[in-house]
Amino acid sequence: MKEIMVKEILGAKIKPEDAIILRELVSRELDENVILDFSDMQNVSCSFLANLLTEMMYKKGRSHVIDHLKVKNLTNKKDFSRILMGTSYC
Q1: What residues does the DUF4325 domain cover (predicted)?
Q2: What secondary structure letter does DSSP report for 69?
Q3: N or C: which end of the chain has fewer CB within 10 A?
Q4: Which helix (H) or strand (E) element contains residue 37?
Q5: Segments making up each domain of the chain, as ranges
Q6: Which residues contact 24 (CB under 8 A, 6 or more apart)?
Q7: Is 72 helix (H, G, I), strand (E, B) or coil?
């Protein structure tokens, strides 16, 4: 299991396009379990989460991403789950 500290990779203030960097890193590890740790980060936008997840779900399949990608310390975990399940209204 790989744990990625998002703040160490992208810094504290992230923009939606920063998800591309994180997505590439996660995609390389997604055959195993990956945990994204959003410690000390506020205001992670739905756009960021959508940019992070959409292409991975297209390439690997929604079920694979659900089974292998987890988050912790994300203040808007509900938004993450909604995007992952395809029920987002962002």
Answers
A1: 18-77
A2: E
A3: N
A4: strand 34-37
A5: 2-85
A6: none
A7: strand
